[in-house]
Amino acid sequence: MHAAFFTRTGDASVIEWGELPDPTPGPGQVRVRPRAVAVDAVDVLVRSGRWRAPLAFPVAVGRDLVGVVDAVGPDVHDVGIGDRVWTSSAGYADRAGATAELVVVDRNRVYPVPAAADPIELVASLHPATTAVAALHLRAGIRPGETLVVVGANGAVGAALVQEGVASGADVIAVVRDDRSGATLSSWGAEVVVAAADEAAGAVAQRREGGIHVLIDTTGRADTASAVRHLAPRGRVIVLAGRTSTEVDLWTVQVRELRVEGFILSALSVDELQAVAARVGARWAEGRPIRAHVGEVLGFADAAGAHRRMESGGLPRTADGFVGRLVLVPPPVPS
Ligand SMILES: NC(=O)c1ccc[n+]([C@@H]2O[C@H](COP(=O)([O-])OP(=O)(O)OC[C@H]3O[C@@H](n4cnc5c(N)ncnc54)[C@H](OP(=O)(O)O)[C@@H]3O)[C@@H](O)[C@H]2O)c1
Hints:
Layout: E1 2-6, E2 16-19, E3 29-39, H1 41-48, E4 59-60, E5 65-72, E6 84-87, E7 103-106, E8 111-112, H2 119-140, E9 147-151, H3 156-167, E10 171-176, H4 182-187, E11 191-194, H5 200-205, E12 212-217, H6 224-229, E13 231-239, H7 250-255, E14 259-262, H8 270-285, E15 294-299, H9 303-312, E16 325-329
Parallel strand pairs: 9-10, 9-12, 10-11, 12-13, 13-14, 15-16
Antiparallel strand pairs: 1-2, 1-4, 3-5, 3-7, 3-16, 5-6, 6-8
Residues 41, 127, 131, 152, 154-158, 177, 197, 218-221, 240-241, 263-265, 315, 323 line the site of NADP nicotinamide-adenine-dinucleotide phosphate.
């Protein structure tokens, strides 16, 4: 089979498009023929070695795929050949990567593709949607009526947080640094605040006397010390893009019983991922899927170029200012 793989970490030039042996599913595994694979920021972190994940070289790039089961392991009876499935667990922790013509995935890490979902649209949404669901429900424990502040709401994860926050009954404030995405974010049910990331908490606090219950910064530039000062009692800051350092006033943390909590999708257990996948699927079944903006569709062989664009900040933009996602599709299967 062909794959976009690497045999050592490094810059995007370590990605080769070439032949690897066809994999065979073992016990507890299925083999999937991907129809679409997402390019996520985390793929760049894994490939570059900046995030040290155990890797079974040669390993294909990519963690999210949507595809069709084409073989099953000897003891797998509840998933069959031809089933449409997705996973968000490929390509790290010694598992095979997604950008290959055939990918072996653990049975307990594949989930059914919703009937209404197009593979490209679904795969583009998986990383932001699973991040948003896990951060809001598993970490923040968001409750209806609570004020949720999303900094960087026009980004992929930010847009997913806004959609899931509104669907969960939160009072969602979407912070963006310009107003281009404002009309769309408002149509989703969010109040829009235009502010620099490092002034976001203060700008929102002026509008909510009761304080902020949950703040999630997707830009890595928000001022967490200021966010902590503006939290309501038992408020939470969920850190998922931790780029800076800050000094937090621990007296405020103590007397208001606040939480500043880290989150990384890669650390979720199989059970947690299944719960997240169930919520993502339920949103599709309700006709309110968490959507992402597909920026551009490229071939698997363009994986290195896609990584370069990701690293240079060259991601496509929608006309209304949202960051567009890159999706890779395999070459046509010879008939
Ligand atoms: N912890 C986890 O498990 C997890 C999971 C998924 C993603 N992440 C992380 O979450 C972050 C966001 O991912 P994403 O896919 O949503 O990225 P994205 O689509 O590129 O969005 C980036 C957002 O950050 C904003 N931004 C960029 N530079 C900025 C600056 N200098 N000042 C203010 N805002 C700025 C962008 O606003 P403009 O459009 O105005 O530039 C946009 O809103 C990344 O760091 C990613 O690694 C973490």
